[in-house]
Amino acid sequence: MKRNVAIVTASLLCVSLLSGCGTKKDEDVKVTPKIVKAQSVQEQSLVDGLTYIGVVKAKDTKNYSFLMSGKIATINVEKGQKFKKGDVLATMDTKTLQYTADISGNTSETAKATLEKTISTYDTNIQAAKTSIETLNTSIAAAEQGIEAGQKSIDANQVALDAAENALNRLKQKLSDAKALNNAGGVSDSDVKDLETNLVSKQAEYDTKVAELNSAKAELQSKKAEVSSLYDKKKTAQDTLNNLYVSKDKDVKAAQAAVNSANTSGDIIQKNINDSTITADADGYVMELPYKEGEVIAAGYPVVVAKSTDMVVSVGVSDEDISKIKLGGKAIIKDGVTGTISTIAQYPNEDTRTYAVDISVPADKFTIGETVNVKIVTGNATGCYVPINAVFNMDGVDYVYAINSENKVYKKQVVRGSIDGDKVEVKIDDPTATIITDGVRSLRENDTVKVEGE
């Protein structure tokens, strides 16, 4: 019995000693405050808008193709490869085209030589015709002068003939009178004989004048015939010249048409050779390569399917919201990236009944196919906003942790409002409260805390 009492007494003594030691230790322990982030309750102005989910895609898709049929010689890009404006994407085999170009070049040179020869030949013949006409004009002028001189000669011969005829007639009358007197014995036979001799001489002189007049007339007729012939020749020469002009114009046009046709064929062939190289007209990425090198492809079929480096975020906007947005409006994508509304569909999609809206965004901020949150800005909203993680719910009631004057944590009931990205509007009845915004999960009521940075 005594042994048991002793044990109990000893036990109580140990408990008493331990209890005394414990109290002393608690008094010496210092509580380390938890570091938190906090904000005062105050109204903030935040961007208000329409929240949607969008998909990042290339702004444009382009099919690069050849304008003619042929065999693909080279494809200089690979699927997924980025290229720059001016890069050669693919080429077509041009051996046949080059051979055709050489033939076309020869045809063009031949046509040009034919044109030059045609012009030269006509110019030579035209000049010869002009020279012939000039010569005929000179001959005509000389012949006409001959006619004028012939007419003068005829006039002079006519005067001389008339004088000879008058002299002859007077002599005949004198002889007749002498013969009558001779019969009467008034004139000697010798005088009659002299008159008869004189008459023969005058007759001969008269005949000569007649012959000279007839000769002058014949010569005049000859000159007139010559002039007529010269005019006929001139007309023929003029007709020949006119025909040469007409024929030259016709033949030169035909030769020039042949040159133009050859040049056009050559230009088309050269254009085909130039078009046998596909060059990028803008920076982009290769999406698809439907054909391989060595394959024959028809004109217009895509060899390289590319997408532009410019990007858009595409969202489907509901019928009730579509009237709230405008072209050129702003939108905020994840991480605060700002975009601009570039296109708005005029009609809704038949399946989703939403309107496709494209928002232009910087190309280096996103990846094609990425899904992102989008807020299409419609204005500004005012309220007290805290991070969504700062609000917690207990038994169906929303709370935040606040800090009292002793830096102790206490719960404060709030009413949730609208959500803006990672923030939520809260309504609180104490405008002086300081709300903890980070580190909430590790806190309990009455925890001692210290605001980061203070």
In short:
The chain has 454 residues and is of the alpha+beta class. It contains three helices and 23 strands.
What does this molecule look like?
The protein is 45% helix and 29% strand. It has helices at residues 2-28, 95-184, 189-275, and strands spanning 34-40, 44-58, 61-65, 70-75, 82-83, 88-92, 277-279, 284-288, 296-297, 302-308, 311-317, 330-333, 338-344, 355-361, 371-383, 385-387, 392-394, 397-403, 409-413, 415-420, 423-427, 434-438, 449-451. The strands form 6 sheets. Strands 2-11-14-13-12-15 form a 6-stranded antiparallel β-barrel. The longest helix is centred in the N-terminal third of the chain and has 90 residues, at 95-184. The radius of gyration is 64 Å and the shape is rod-shaped. 17% of the residues are buried. Residues 1-27 have low confidence and may be disordered.
What descriptors fit this protein?
454 residues; alpha+beta; Elongation Factor Tu (Ef-tu), domain 3; OB fold (Dihydrolipoamide Acetyltransferase, E2P); Helix Hairpins; 6-stranded antiparallel barrel; 4-stranded antiparallel β-sheet; 3 helices; 45% helix; rod-shaped; disordered N terminus
